[in-house]
Design a protein that fits this description.
Elements (H helix, E strand, L loop, with lengths): L2 E5 L9 E4 L7 H6 L8 E5 L9 E8 L9 H7 L15 H14 L4 E8 L3 H10 L5 E7 L8 H8 L9 H8 L17 H8 L6 H13 L13 E6 L7 H10 L4 E5 L6 H4 L1 H23 L1
Parallel strand pairs: 4-5, 5-6, 6-7, 7-8
Antiparallel strand pairs: 1-2, 1-3
């Protein structure tokens, strides 16, 4: 039986708000290591019979280049869910194609589940486009974290302009640059966490072969003219590192209005790669948000 995460008293509208975690992830580390949101209690227990009319919730976590989904694996392990790839080597990888794959994965879950889509960095545009493709009945909510909604950051914009060169460049070049003082060390609060091994683990697979580098190149070129995104039409959380020079917190506040309302939750001290330094903060924000979304749908159905 799937484990259940019961959250109380985070959501007062229901005595028990439940999310079935489809990958078998647990919250044991939450109990052992702490770091929970204030007042939050997480209890593992068997899933009871559904008495509220709510459907189970899937969490799909997406990270954009230069990262692979491995960047979000610690947060996904804590909160549950799947970390599918945003891009596919050898496939179509422009913005519309990536969004179509995301939407297809949601639909593959069937009518018995709703999905919360979580996007970090350059995955944000694809998740927003996918949300526009999906009906509100398929999604429970959308979580966006430190990525382009109205503009590309200057570093990505520069790479996008020369993206045609990326497939021909050696894969080791990207790892060396990203692990240097000019690369990801500027995107974290503690530069020592972006050592060569860490960068290789979360970034190198994205550039492993010419086909992978072509996928990144195609996706970046499709972001040069960032479209205006329609509001997702479902509850939206912007879980935003509040010390990010690439996508400052003020942009999340402005985007919240453009996306039709929602909630901005700062990740204190978080820079662009806060999921690597503070995975518990993002995981707990997603857990609380998803539980609230389930409770709200249950209340509305009642």
């Amino acid at each position: 039986m799937s484990p259940l995460v019961a959250m109380s008293p985070l959501v007062a509208m229901s005595p028990l708000v439940a999310m079935r975690l489809h990958d078998g992830g647990t919250f044991e580390d939450q109990v052992i290591h702490g770091g929970t949101l204030p007042g939050a209690t997480f209890v593992m227990q068997p899933a009871p019979p559904d008495q509220t009319g709510t459907r189970s919730v899937r969490l799909h976590w997406y990270a954009g280049p230069p990262f692979t989904s491995d960047l979000l694996q610690p947060a996904a392990t804590r909160a549950g869910g799947e970390t599918p790839p945003l891009l596919e080597a050898g496939g179509a990888n422009n913005l519309d194609a990536a969004a179509a794959r995301i939407a297809a994965r949601v639909r593959a879950g069937g009518e018995s589940t709703r999905t919360v889509l979580i996007a970090h960095g350059l995955a944000v545009p694809a998740v927003l486009r996918a949300a526009g493709m999906l009906g509100t009945d398929a999604l429970a909510g959308v979580v966006l974290s430190n990525g382009p909604i109205t503009r590309l950051d200057p570093v990505t914009a520069g790479w996008a302009r020369v993206a045609g060169l990326i497939p021909a460049l050696p894969s080791a070049l990207f790892t060396r640059w990203l692990a240097s003082s000019a690369g990801l060390r500027r995107a974290v609060a503690n530069p020592y966490v972006m050592d060569r091994d860490t960068v290789a683990a979360i970034c190198a697979p994205a550039f492993a072969t010419a086909a992978h580098r072509k996928a990144v190149s195609t996706y970046l070129r499709s972001l040069i003219q960032l479209p205006r995104f329609a509001p997702p039409g479902v509850p939206t959380l912007l879980a935003w590192g509040d010390d990010d020079p690439l996508y400052p917190l003020a942009e999340a506040d402005a985007a919240d209005v453009l996306l039709g309302g929602g909630h901005v939750q700062p990740i204190p001290g978080g820079r662009f790669v806060h999921p690597d330094e503070r995975p518990w903060a993002l995981a707990d924000a997603v857990t609380a948000f998803s539980a609230a979304a389930v409770a709200a749908r249950a209340t509305g159905a009642g």
